[in-house]
Amino acid sequence: MHIYEERLSVPRSWWALVALGGAGLALAGIPFGAIAAVTAAAVGMAVAAGIVYAHGRVRILVTPGSLVVGGRKIPIEALGATEILDEREAFEWRTVRANPYAMLLLRSYIPTALRIELRNSYGGAPYLYLSTRQPMNLAAVLAFSRG
Fold first, then answer.
1. Given 27, 45, 108, 116, which is the most exposed site by the fewest CB atoms within 10 A?
2. Handedness of CA 101, 105, 106, 110 (dihedral sign)
């Protein structure tokens, strides 16, 4: 059972770029014949679509007793205080204020984030930085899960 679930899917414009890349590869393949042009477009678009899909399928899940971030399961007991970051603060925390030991889930196309302190430096990380479109909802769900 999931208490909270968010998929960090890529913007629709990225899919348009995949199509444009395929069209560009088709144009590049025209001098070698129609079959080469179609093959180049199909292969290029398939590779690009796979990369875009994989990048956008990361999920943030809150289940009873744990936070699952990109496949990594963190017990709720290991989570400390949360800080909702607006666009400016999120930029600072992922650049100049970033800790090299922190656990980061960065998505450049999501401007807001949530920073969560980790108790006892869980996994050697002082905090968890999550790009999220709904930082207030995620913070509320985590507060509720902690009881």
1. 108
2. negative
Contact yes or no for 80/116 (Cβ under 8 A) = yes
**Dist. CA 88–CA 71, nearest whole Å:** 28
CA dist., res. 79 & res. 127, Å (int): 9
pLDDT tens-place string over residues 23-60:
999 999 999 999 999 999 999 999 999 999 999 999 99
Return left, alpha or beta for 124; rule: phi > 0 is left, psi -120 to 50 is alpha, else beta. Answer: left
Amino acid at 8: L
Query: Do residues 105 and 58 touch, judged by C-beta distance below 8 A?
Result: yes
Q: Residue 3 gets which letter from DSSP?
A: S
75-118 residue pLDDT tens: 999 999 999 999 999 999 999 999 999 999 999 999 999 999 99
Q: State the greatest distance between any 2 C-alpha atoms of the chain, in Å, as a whole number.
A: 66
- For 33, left (φ over 0), alpha (ψ -120 to 50), or beta? left
pTM: 0.85
